[in-house]
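dumping this here so i dont lose it
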C-alpha cells in the first residue's frame, strides 16, 4: 500500500479556541470529531490518490459534502501531499480532523525549506499552482515550523 500507516478515526470532544491560524496547530473544530492520520512514503506519488480516497471516506458524512466543500478539500489535500512528496524527497504525514465547525488538513514533511506560493509558469501547464490554489480556496492556511521540517495546513468551514 502506498500509504504506510492505517487511518485512525476517533470520536471525542474538544473545546473551541485551538483552531486559529498561528495557534497550536489543532483543528478549529469542536464537539464530536473524526481523524485521519497517514504516513506517506518517500517520493511515492501513488500516495496522492490514496490520500484523496482516505479523505473522501473521512468526509463521507460531513456537512460540507452538499456544498462542494469536500471536493475542494480533496483537491487541496492532493496539492499539499504532492508538494510534500515532490519537493522534499522525504516521507510526510497527512493528518485531517473534521468536526461540527469544519475541517483541518495538515501535511507534515521533514525538510526545513519553507514553501512559497508562486505564479504558475505559463510554459508548463502542470507545475506551480498548488499553494496558489490553497490560498484561493481555503478559508485559512499556513505553515508551522517544527524542529525538523514543517507542516502546511488548511482549514475549510462546514458551510461556504
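and the seq i came up w/
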Amino acid at each position: 500500500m502506498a500509504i504506510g500507516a492505517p487511518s485512525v478515526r476517533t470520536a471525542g470532544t474538544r473545546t473551541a479556541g485551538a483552531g486559529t491560524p498561528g495557534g497550536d496547530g489543532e483543528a478549529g473544530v469542536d464537539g464530536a470529531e473524526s481523524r485521519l492520520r497517514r504516513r506517506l512514503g518517500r517520493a511515492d506519488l501513488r500516495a496522492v490518490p490514496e490520500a484523496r480516497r482516505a479523505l473522501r471516506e473521512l468526509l463521507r458524512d460531513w456537512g460540507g459534502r452538499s456544498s462542494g466543500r469536500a471536493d475542494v478539500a480533496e483537491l487541496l489535500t492532493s496539492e499539499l501531499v504532492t508538494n510534500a512528496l515532490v519537493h522534499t524527497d522525504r516521507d510526510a504525514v497527512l493528518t485531517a480532523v473534521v468536526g461540527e465547525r469544519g475541517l483541518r488538513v495538515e501535511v507534515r514533511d521533514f525538510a526545513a525549506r519553507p514553501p512559497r506560493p508562486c505564479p504558475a509558469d505559463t510554459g508548463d501547464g502542470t507545475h506551480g499552482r498548488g499553494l496558489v490554489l490553497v490560498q484561493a480556496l481555503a478559508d485559512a492556511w499556513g505553515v508551522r515550523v517544527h524542529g525538523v521540517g514543517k507542516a502546511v495546513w488548511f482549514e475549510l468551514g462546514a458551510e461556504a
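The two ends are 34 Å apart (CA to CA).
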